[in-house]
Amino acid sequence: MAKLPVIKFHPLTVPNHGSVALFVGKSLVLGSIARGLDEASSGAVNRAIKAADFKGELAKSITILAPAGLDLDQIVVVGVGEETLSECDFLRLGGTVMGQLKGANKASIIAEIDGVDINAASVSLVAMGMKLRAYDFDKYKTEKGKPKKQKSALAATVLCADHEGAAKAWETDSVVSDGTLLARDLVNEPANVLGPKEFAAKAKALEAVGAKVEILKQTELEKLGMRALLGVAQGSERPPRVAIIKWNGGKKDDAPVVFVGKGVVFDTGGISIKPAGGMEDMKGDMGGAATVTGLMHALSARKAKVNAIGIIGLVENMPDGNAMRPGDIVKSMSGQTIEVINTDAEGRLVLCDLLHYAKETFKPRFMVDLATLTGAVLVALGTQNAGIFSNNDALCDQLSDAGEVTGETVWRLPLAKEYDKLIDSKFADMKNTGGRWAGSITAAQFLKRFVGDVDWVHIDVAGTAMDSPKTATSQGWASGYGVRLLDRMVKDNYEV
């Protein structure tokens, strides 16, 4: 795996070795430290800005190699655009810096902008952007059959006015970014490496950061009556697992907030088999479970002042002779019966048992489930937003606000009785798909039948968790979407 940068924070000073990154706005006026570099190089920085017709636009950059008069490898000038910068902007700046410093061994980042107040929290976000951008899932690449040699990690020193405050903020931001990268790792791993058992072990490893983890095996799931989830798993040689991850950071008697993740480690579609083209991407059909695992890492590692539970259902959907068939009727843990119309609508069968289990067992303050559930959400929203469905307006508002801050945005889609009728069955209480139209909505209507009166949000991350567009902070196939979103939602609304 590519090595992540080692980031430290120090007071503002003029750097004299390695690479340097500095920021400039549309005014093109350099900050005090950058002016020192410009003067020492007989105006090389300002000359380069003019020669390149650089406008200082947000996340645009130019590079000055081996500047005259300085013992520096390069100076990277990054534009910040307007004087008002959001949290997302600072993340993007950090990602841009890291992208331009690729291959450097040592670098100083001058976190100073003329006319802009960069506080400690903003400086830490620049560092987070650098770390997220540096991620590269290359663990299986070799050089002539031998493990690929990894370059040394970038030693990055962020120079800023409040270096002690930035270092304190980084203690939190660093572990939240670790949660995001953990989610990326899980989604990127091939299914032959990461089956239900192996995924459960990854969840169990969160005990190292203070979580308590219980793993339910097939016998226990059978006793609980999770026959919908087990029906999805019965075609695979690899038995299912359910991981229950608990972080108790709030008051003893506070009801927990609960996050539920779909963890289909590979989805062939079962008997309703998918087309061969692109099926390899179905190793990422556990993106919801990956996000929940990364979130629980973040909450536990930063010692969030909240009681939180993550529940992930880990199965493989295969077309074995023992696999579930279209037309089968299964009885869910709730007692409701489900006619299986399409075995490729399997994620909701996993989630329905988990949602009922969470509702009955933990009496949660609210439940949020995440799943790469439908291709239909891609038709509706593309890859820019995750679709959300809910029985509670306040929860949707909290998620939307958190999305605007973190850049992991969401868009609410409707639920209504008219859609609910589409999943009524002639032979059972419901069927697992409502047909071609409104596919994301009917999937959410299906899940709603298992949440009772608990406040609940369903997040369809099929367009955002995997194969999403490259950004300044995410250059790979898996994005880790949702970890920062949900961490921020909890932080802003539910910590005591």
Lay out the secondary structure.
Blueprint: E1 6-11, E2 19-24, H1 32-40, H2 44-51, E3 61-65, E4 74-79, H3 87-100, E5 106-110, H4 120-134, E6 142-143, E7 146-147, E8 155-160, H5 163-188, H6 196-204, E9 212-216, H7 218-224, H8 227-233, E10 241-248, E11 257-267, H9 287-301, E12 307-317, E13 329-331, E14 337-339, H10 347-362, E15 366-371, H11 376-381, E16 386-390, H12 393-406, E17 410-412, H13 417-420, E18 430-431, H14 439-448, E19 456-460, H15 483-493
Parallel strand pairs: 1-8, 2-4, 2-5, 5-8, 11-12, 11-15, 14-18, 15-19, 16-17
Antiparallel strand pairs: 3-4, 6-7, 9-10, 10-12, 13-14, 16-19
Helix pairs in contact: 3-4, 4-5, 5-9, 8-10, 9-15, 10-14, 12-15
Describe the structure in your own words.
It is a single chain. The chain has 496 residues and is α/β, with parallel strands linked by helices. The protein is 34% helix and 20% strand. It is built from 15 helices and 19 strands. Helix 4 packs parallel to helix 5. The chain is elongated. The model has no long low-confidence stretch (mean pLDDT 96).
